[in-house]
Amino acid sequence: MNSVILKIASRYVRLILFSAAIFALLRGHNLPGGGFIGGLLAGLAVVYKGFAYTFREARQSMRLKPEFLIASGLSIVLLSMIPGILNGKNLMHGIWYKIPLGEAMEIKIGTPFIFDIGVFLTVIGVTVIFLLVLNRE
After folding, report:
1. pLDDT of residue 14
2. Residue bearing the bigger pLDDT, 129 or 58
3. Exposed e or buried b for every residue in 39-64, given b needs 16+ CB within 10 A?
4. Spatial contact of 6 and 51, defined as CB atoms under 8 Å apart
């Protein structure tokens, strides 16, 4: 498409989609679906740029190739399983780590969140590749 309105709106819609994707990832790490839904939203933001401009520009604007995102995501998913095994628990057992931020604050990061990050990256890569292939045909 060659619509000026779509191109202008694209900047804002993509920002909203990426923000919603990050929110879904961060909000959902204790609930089912955070990484998957966030990945779909982020992939949709890239595809939206493809509709506004061209799919070639959309793919070139990605700093990381979709194939790299898939490989990285799957690697992170596999790495998130190791702490459970090392602690003598089940393969997907959630292990939580506390990271102190000064004297009064700490952040709790668990293997479910790391797993969700891997799913997030994998779904972005798969969504972008899938929709780019559909566009070619």
Report:
1. 93
2. 129
3. bbbbbbbbbbbbbbbebeebbeeeee
4. yes
Which two structure tokens, joined as six digits, stand for 21?
A: 């994707």
pTM for this prediction: 0.86
125: its two tokens: 């890569």
- Paired residues of 110 in beta bridges: 96
Q: Residues 71, 94, 119, CA angle at the centre, nearest 5°?
A: 25
pLDDT in tens, 109-131: 888 889 999 999 999 999 989 98
> How do the domains of the chain map onto residue ranges?
4-136
Q: What is the pLDDT of residues 67-80, one digit of tens each?
A: 999 999 999 999 99
Distance CA 123, CA 66 (A): 9
CB 25 within 8 A of CB 35: yes
Local structure of residue 100 (DSSP, 8 states): E
